[in-house]
Amino acid sequence: MLAATVCQQLRSIVGDAWFRDDTETLVSYSYDATPLYQSMPDGVIFPASTEEVAAVMRVCAQHRIPVVTRGAGSNLCAGVVPLHGGLIMVMTRMNRLLEIDQDNLTATFQTGLNTKRFHTAVEETGLFYPPDPSSMIICTMGGNIALGAGGLRGLKYGTTKDYVIGLEAVLANGEVLRTGGKLVKDVAGYDLTRLLVGSGGTLAILTEATVKLVPKPAYRRAMIAVFADLPAAARTVSQIIANRITPCTLEFMDQATIEVVEAFAKIGLPVDAQAILAIEQDGDEAQVEKDLELIEAICRREGAIQVKVAATPEEGAKVMEARRSALAALSRLRPTTILEDATVPRSKIADMVLEVQRIAAKHNVRICTFGHAGDGNLHPTAMTDARDAEEIHRVELAFEEIFDAAIRLGGTITGEHGVGHVKAPYLEWKVGASGISLMKRLKLAFDPDGLLNPGKLFAETRKRVVFTSEPGAGNEAGGTAGPGQTGAGERGLSGDSLEDGRDPATKGGA
C-alpha cells in the first residue's frame, strides 16, 4: 500500500481519475496473459505524456517505489506482473500516431498506440510496417518494442528490432533520453536504441518511437501444403530456404493444432493431416508466381500429399488468420495453455520437432507445436490444468528439457516472447555467467536502485505469489518468496527498506 502523501503526489501529476488504488483495479493489473503468475501492485497510474511519465518517475525514485510499465498485457513471459508490488504504469493513454513521414519512410508514435491501428494507418498511405505479432489486434507498439516482438513475416522482413531507429525514454531518475532519429546511418557512440529494444522495461520507460517503413508489396498469394508426417514438413521448410527462396510467411502446424484450429476457424483444413505448412509470398506478381511454383515442387518432392494455392486474396487471408488463431483455438482444449517459443537454426527444425515429441512422451504431457517455421521459431504449447500441481510439474520439466534441446541445437530459449520472469532461471544457459554479469552491470548503470520492472531477467527462481488485499494474508499460491518478501506477502525491494514510499503500517501485509 502506498503512503497517502505519495498517492497525493501521483494524483497531482495525472489527475484524480488517472491514479487508482482500489482493490478492483489492483486485481485487474496483477497479471498479464501468462498463465500461473499473479502479484498485486500497490497502485496503477495512466500518464498522458512524456512529461507526466518523467514526473511520476521522480516521485518513485524519491520514495524507492518499483515501477512496471505496461501496454496491453498480452506478453507470455510474465513480463509485466508486478512481482515486487509498487506502481503499474499503463501507457495506453499515450496512443497518438504523431507522424507518417513519406519522404523519409518513417513513422513516429507514442508507445501506447495499438499495433493493428498503426498497421492500418501506415498501409492507407501505400507504405508497410512488416512486424506482425499474432496479438496485433490488442497489443501496443511499445510492448512490441520492449520485448523485441516478431511475427509471421519475420522470415523475409525481420522483427521489431530491425525497424526501430529512434526512441524517447524516461530513465529511472526521471531524466528523458532520446536516441537515434530519422536516419539511415548513425554510428555516433553506442547504439542505445538497439540496447533498449527488447529490454523489457528493465532499463527505461519507452514513451515515443520512430520506425522505418517500406513500400507496400503490390501482390500477395498464399498456399498450404499438407503432410502425412511431421519430419517431412520440417524437411520441406529447410529445403525451401536452401533453394534460396524467402517466403513472406512460412508457418507450421501439427495435427493437434490443425484439428483445433479448424474447429475454431472452419476454413476447410484437413484435420487428419499430421502437419500443414501455411506459406505466403509477396512482391512482384511474376516473381511471386514463380516462387510458388518452385515451392510447390519442393513440397511434393519432400512428401506433401496435397498442395493448394489460394484462388483469391480473401482465401489466402483466411488461411493466415486461421494460423493467427492457433493459441486461442488451443486454449479451448484444457483450462490452462502454456505457450513457449524455443527457437533453432532453420536447418535444425526437423530435429527440434522430434525432440519436442520425445520430451512430451517422456513426461506424459500433451504438447502441440506450431509456429514460424521459416525462421526456426517454434511454439511448443502445453495443454494442462493449473489445478493439477503434479501435471504442472511435469509440464515444467518438459519445457526445461525443450529449452535445453534448443540450446544444444544451436538455438535459444526465446525467439520473440522475451525472458521476463518465466524464463529468467534459464537465461544463463544461453548467455553464460559472463553474459549475466555484463547484463547486470548494464542494469545497474541505467537503474541503480532496481526500480524498473524488478524480478525480471535475473530471477533465481520462478515465483507465482498471489498477494491478497487483506493485511497479513499468506502466500496463496505456494510460490517462493522473492527479495524483500515474507510469507505474509511483503513486497519491498529489500528486507530493511524503510523509505520506499509505502505505508509502514502495511509492511508485512499485502
Can you describe what's shown?
It is a single chain. This protein is an alpha+beta fold. The protein folds into four domains: 1-93 and 465-500, Uridine Diphospho-n-acetylenolpyruvylglucosamine Reductase, domain 2, CATH 3.30.43.10; 97-215, Uridine Diphospho-n-acetylenolpyruvylglucosamine Reductase, domain 3 (2-Layer Sandwich), CATH 3.30.465; 219-332, Alpha-Beta Plaits (2-Layer Sandwich), CATH 3.30.70.3450; 334-445 and 453-461, Alpha-Beta Plaits (2-Layer Sandwich). The chain has 15 helices and 18 strands. Strands 15-12-14-13-17-18-16 form a seven-stranded antiparallel β-sheet, with helices on both faces. A hairpin with a 4-residue loop joins strand 5 (97-101) and strand 6 (106-110). Helix 8 packs antiparallel against helix 13 (349-363) and helix 13 packs antiparallel against helix 14 (389-408). It is globular. Residues 37-216 form the FAD-binding PCMH-type domain. This is FAD-binding protein. GO terms for molecular function: FAD binding; oxidoreductase activity. Its cofactor is FAD. Residues 475-492 have a biased composition (Gly residues).
**Mean of all residue-level pLDDT scores:** 89
Q: What is the CATH architecture annotation of the largest domain?
A: 2-Layer Sandwich
Tell me the overall shape.
globular
Radius of gyration: 23 Å
How many beta strands in the DSSP annotation? 18
CATH topology of the largest domain: Uridine Diphospho-n-acetylenolpyruvylglucosamine Reductase, domain 2
Major pleated sheet: 7 strands, antiparallel
Number of helical segments? 15
Q: Give the amount of beta strand, in percent.
A: 15-25%
Looking at CATH, the homologous superfamily of the largest domain is Uridine Diphospho-n-acetylenolpyruvylglucosamine Reductase, domain 2
**Which stretches of 5+ consecutive residues score pLDDT under 50?**
466-500, 502-510
**Oligomerization status of the protein chains:** single chain
Helix share bin: 25-40%
Protein name: FAD-binding protein
Family: Belongs to the FAD-binding oxidoreductase/transferase type 4 family.
Keywords: FAD, Flavoprotein, Oxidoreductase
Cofactor: FAD
